[in-house]
Structure formats: C-alpha cells, structure tokens
C-alpha cells in the first residue's frame, strides 16, 4: 500500500511537471507565432504604403506635358517597381505561412484581387498619360487617381486577418498592433487628401463641389484618426521612440503639411491660381507624411520587442521548470523513502482518523496515546488539525460572504443602484465580443441630464440626487432582457442595447427621453420639477463593435443633441473603418 502511495505521488508530480512544461512550451510557440505574424503584417502594411506612395509620382506625371520629363518617368517607374516588390514579398510570406488551407486560399485570393486592380489602375493611368496635356480632362484625371486610390481597400482582407491573428497569438500586442494600423490608415488618408488636389492642380482650376466635399470628408477622417492615435499613445508604458515619432508627426504633418494644404485650399476655393504644379505640390507634401510611417514602424518595433521579450521569458521559464522538475523528482524520491521507513508506518494507527478528517468528518475519534512519545505528538497534531480545520471552514465562509459583498459594492453605483462604469465596461466588452462573433446588431446610448448643474445650484445637491434617481428608475424600467445600463459618472448614464439597429435605438432613445421628461422627481419641494435628457446613439452597423469607438461616437452624438437644444436624441453618423 505504501509503495502504491509513493508511486501515485510520483505520477502526480510528473503530471504537474508535464503540465507546466507544456504550458511554457505553448507560450514559447505563441510568442514565435506572434513574431512571424507581425512580420507578415509589416509586409502587408508596407504593401499598402507602397501603393499609396506610388500615387505621388503618378499624380505628378499626370500634370506633365508630352513627352514626360525623364526624371518624372524614372520616378514613376521606380515607384511601381517598389510596389511590385512589396506585393511579391507579401505574396511569398502569405504563401509560406503554415495556416489552414481555407485561410491561406482566402488571403492569396484577396492579394490577387488587389494585384489585378493595381494592374488595371496603372493601365488607366497610362492611357491618360498617352494623351496630350490639353486633352486630359479633369474627369479623366480624377478617374485615374481614384483607380489608384481604390487599390488600398482591397488589401484590407489581407492585413486585417494578419493583425487579428497576431493579437490572438499574443493578446498583449493588441494596443501596439492597433496603433500601427491606425498610423497606416492615417498615412493612407493623408495621401488620399493630397490626391484630391491633383485634378485641380493639373488643370489650374478651382475645386469642383464634389472635390471640395471629398476633401472635407477626408480631412474629417484624418482628424478622427489623429484623435484615436492620441488616445492610443496615452498608455503609460509607451516607448520613448513612439512618443518621439508622434511628436515629429505633430510638427511636420500636422504643422508644415497642414500649412501647405491651407494655402492650396485657399487658392482652390478662389481663382485656382496655385502657383505650383501637381508634381511640385507632391514634392512638398509627400515628405511631410513620412513621419507617419516612422510612427507606424516604431509601434510595430515595440510590438516585436514585446513578443521577443515574452519569447525569451517563456524560454527561460521552460528551462528552469525542466531543471527544477528534475531536482524536485530526486528530492521527492528521497523524501518518500524517508517517510515510508520513519514516518508512515508509525502513523498507521491514525489512518482512520485522518481519512475521516479528509472527508470533513471533524467528530471522528482519535486513539488515546499510551505513552509520551512520537505517536502521542502525532495524535495531538491531528487533534489540533481538526480544530484548525473547523475554524478555517468558519473563516472561509465568512471570507466568501465578505468577498461577495465587496464585489457587489465595487460594481454598483452607490446612489442609483445601477452598475458603475467599471462593471459596465467589463460586461459590455463581453457582450460586444459575442455580438461580433454572431453578427448581432448592437447600439450604445449615452444619456446626459440637461441643465443638471443649474438644478444643483438652484435646488441643492439633494434635489440633484433625486433627479438622478428618477432617471435611473426610468432607465431600469425600460431595459429589455439582455440590455445593459450603468451610471457612467456624474449626470451621465450609458446603455448597451442588444439586437438593436440604428432606427430601433433611436426609437428606444426617444421613448426613454419622453418617459424621463414625464417622470416626477420625488422628494423635491416643488412638484413641478422635471428633468430632461439628451441622448446620443451609436450602432454597430455604422460604428463597428469596438466599445471605445461606440462610446466615443455616441458621446459625440449626445453633444450634438445638447448643441441642438437639448431634450432630444441624435444618432451618430460616423462610419466604421
């Protein structure tokens, strides 16, 4: 029996050691996989960059007369060669990736589609370049430029899965990968903004209404991306290289380049006398976009460093685990030998009491010691263990009750009884992750009490608290099963509506707004006191399933409702990337 017990202990120890080694080996493998995926993502973003860069010499060439200047023709040829090299490098990386057949075929097909579109766009550009400069209409130039612009979105089915796979392999890379994608998108929209000027610069004419609208839309998107990048770079563990790269972007692109754009916009809105050609504009504008790419590369380098550190850490732990496990097995074998010959045999008389104790039978009788020897000490220890176990069980029950109470208090708003900000964010992220998986429409409502400060100032904070309670009661009464609601802070509430599109969300918001306006604030001296709310709605169909993006869009829509006169609901109009 004792030999069997020793064998079981050894087997259990080996299982635990094997489990530890397997876990660390998986960590090493995941870190290696994340490094490989990061390299593929980098190649994908470089391919996007090269397509965007090719538009610079292309736009310059569209403004040249025939025959094209040799320097311009050479620059265009070199840009196309760089793009082709980037596509080939990405193709090789995707083709060599050890992923599932379905994923690999999808990525290869998406890359082939983008490549075919690039070939067609170049052919359209060459067709325009073959015409004398005077015969190149503004519409033909715009179509040629837009053909090149349309290639970049076709690479999203390649870069997006690679980014997701890298984040899945090592979730700690999520912020850096997302930041790099934001920087790449900022560079693309910056290039797109410059392309909008091409036709007007070539033809030396003011902007058309369509061009001006496209310019304003692109500038708005750049402003949004700038805000998202700034939020991303506020993380406390940001590398100095990343911060310096962003400072350079602020100084050059959002400083020098924006000043240049302002001058060209002023002329385009006026007589159209720009004083520079499309090629000259590109020569001034394109270099100021390069710091954005430096920011992207800094973020990718930071992600790569994190993955390498994780790889080295897991490898060290694996080596130490294997070495420690061998030593542990030796020590355990020796200990079992000593226990068997010097401890276990004397304890045979107390086996039944110990078994009862293992089954939580604290009333099991113990043998009476016959002498003051080692056996007496063992019996006394078992008796003490029974008492300690009884006290520990009592303490554990009290601890579990206290932990549950503390958990509820930490996740509940003390005034309204609704979940607080932290609880809402945790539950909302889980709900949005499930909605993303199954394609369920979701909507976020941000609700803010109108004139709340004036209410506090005129009737006192007690009246303000009563008003918040009245709003919370209406919100709680209107919630459906599966919806979430929380007090987000101050006079602001937030709701997450499941299976809800924009129209349904707007209907729900207006119904909620009307019921709040009709609710009486109980406990206030003036029975005529009423409160109104302004609401902003953002839905997943237009804002994606990211919680931060939905909250930001809904919050902006709420401020639109405020600015429009309050006591109303406004749906966000921002589209996803």
TrEMBL record:
Transmembrane segments: 317-339
Domain GGDEF intervals: 440-574
E.C. number: 2.7.7.65
Keywords: Coiled coil, Membrane, Transmembrane, Transmembrane helix
PANTHER family for the chain: DIGUANYLATE CYCLASE DGCM-RELATED, REGULATORY COMPONENTS OF SENSORY TRANSDUCTION SYSTEM
NCBIfam families: GGDEF
Protein name: diguanylate cyclase
């Amino acid at each position: 029996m004792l030999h069997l017990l020793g064998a079981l202990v050894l087997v259990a120890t080996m299982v635990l050691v094997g489990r530890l080694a397997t876990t660390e080996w998986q960590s090493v493998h995941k870190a290696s996989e994340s490094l490989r995926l990061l390299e593929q993502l980098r190649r994908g973003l470089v391919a996007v960059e090269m397509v965007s860069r090719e538009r610079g010499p292309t736009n310059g060439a569209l403004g040249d007369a025939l025959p094209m200047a040799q320097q311009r023709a050479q620059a265009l040829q070199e840009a196309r060669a760089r793009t082709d090299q980037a596509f080939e490098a990405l193709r090789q990386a995707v083709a060599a990736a050890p992923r599932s057949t379905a994923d690999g075929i999808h990525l290869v097909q998406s890359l082939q589609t983008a490549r075919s579109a690039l070939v067609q766009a170049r052919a359209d550009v060459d067709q325009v370049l073959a015409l004398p400069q005077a015969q190149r209409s503004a519409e033909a130039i715009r179509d040629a430029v837009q053909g090149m612009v349309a290639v970049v979105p076709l690479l999203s089915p390649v870069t997006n899965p690679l980014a997701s796979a890298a984040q899945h392999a090592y979730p700690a890379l999520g912020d850096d990968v997302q930041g790099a994608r934001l920087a790449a998108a900022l560079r693309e929209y910056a290039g797109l903004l410059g392309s909008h000027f091409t036709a007007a610069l070539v033809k030396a004419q003011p902007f058309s209404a369509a061009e001006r609208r496209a310019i304003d839309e692109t500038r708005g998107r750049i402003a949004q991306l700038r805000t998202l990048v700034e939020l991303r770079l506020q993380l406390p563990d940001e590398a100095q290289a990343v911060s310096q790269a962003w400072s350079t972007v602020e100084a050059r692109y959002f400083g020098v380049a924006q000043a240049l754009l302002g001058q060209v916009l002023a002329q385009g809105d006026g007589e159209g006398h720009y004083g520079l050609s499309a090629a000259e504009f590109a020569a001034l504008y394109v270099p100021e976009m390069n710091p954005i790419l430096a920011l992207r590369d800094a973020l990718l380098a930071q992600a790569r460093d994190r993955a390498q550190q994780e790889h080295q850490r897991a490898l060290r732990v694996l080596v130490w685990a294997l070495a420690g496990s061998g030593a542990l097995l030796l020590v355990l074998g020796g200990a079992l030998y000593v226990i068997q010959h010097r401890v276990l045999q004397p304890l045979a008389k107390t086996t039944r009491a110990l078994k009862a104790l293992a089954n939580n039978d604290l009333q099991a009788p113990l043998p009476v010691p016959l002498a003051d020897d080692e056996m007496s000490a063992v019996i006394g220890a078992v008796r003490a263990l029974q008492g300690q176990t009884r006290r520990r069980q009592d303490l554990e029950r009290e601890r579990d009750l206290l932990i549950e109470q503390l958990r509820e208090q930490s996740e509940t708003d003390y005034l309204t009884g609704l979940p607080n900000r932290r609880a809402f964010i945790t539950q909302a992220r889980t709900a949005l992750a499930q909605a993303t998986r199954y394609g369920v429409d979701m909507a976020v409502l941000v609700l803010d009490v109108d004139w709340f400060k004036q209410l506090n100032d005129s009737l006192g904070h007690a009246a303000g608290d009563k008003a918040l309670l009245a709003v919370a009661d209406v919100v709680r009464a209107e919630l459906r099963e599966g919806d979430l609601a929380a007090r987000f802070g101050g006079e602001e509430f937030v709701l997450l509506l499941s299976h809800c599109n924009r129209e349904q969300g707007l209907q729900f918001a207006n119904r909620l707004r009307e019921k709040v306006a009709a609710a009486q604030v109980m406990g206030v001296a003036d029975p005529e006191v009423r409160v109104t709310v302004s609401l902003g709605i953002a839905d997943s169909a237009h804002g994606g399933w990211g919680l931060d993006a939905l909250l930001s869009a809904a919050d902006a829509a709420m401020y639109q409702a405020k600015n429009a006169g309050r006591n109303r609901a406004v749906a966000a109009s921002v589209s996803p990337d």
